[in-house]
Amino acid sequence: MNVNIQAPSFTVTPGIEQRIRARFGTTLQRHGDAVIGADVYLRDINGPKGGDDKLVTVRVRLRNQPDITIENTDEDLYRAIDRAAKRANRALRRSIRKQSRLARNELRWMRRRKETEPQPT
Q: What topology does CATH give the domain 2-116?
């Protein structure tokens, strides 16, 4: 799965990159063909001042559906990455489930319509 990482406000260490690819790689692969890829943006909001200032923004690109955007802020960047991955997984499941439900309902509607149509004689 294609995971793009961007961090304009600080340097991405190999450990951070590995964590992102591990967490989001498994999350995205779980959902197969529905997912095109993801963009992960990392920002240090307050700079060297500290505090709850590590922002992780994830944009998951989906096939035939709108993109999903997740944001998570935490003092610890690794924890922010993990939470964003969990939230992205839940949002993906919800979106795919909704799409499946809509498709099923459309099929039911088409069947009922076909059954109630008068047959030509």
A: Double Stranded RNA Binding Domain (3.30.160)
